[in-house]
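>> received
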Amino acid sequence: MAYYLVKAKYHQNLLSELRNRLDSGEIKKMKPFGQALQYGLDNARLDEHDSSFAIWEEEDYCNPPLAQERAAVLDTYFTSLEVKRVKEGEGWKEIESLQKLWKSHSSIGGQHAI
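>> returned
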């Protein structure tokens, strides 16, 4: 298994749709990658140099990296996807201080994009 730090430009106009798919559990149920992708996207951060890019760590078994995830989800909501191989947890540690992609929104019980 491999871990990657993923950086991708998100489509602002599709973020609410992505959030709805995450909240519904649809992505989490996808096999075999759903749980890892759900966790990564739920905890994604904003690039400190360009806030139109999201960054997260992703566990993956594919060659090329994220092939299944891209086909099922990522290519719909993101462009300019880049991956960097990291050790497990190293990517999260690198980005933990960055602003989160999703802000909690307690009045509706969910989250929304910035």
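>> The domain at 2-113 is CATH 3.30.70 (Alpha-Beta Plaits).
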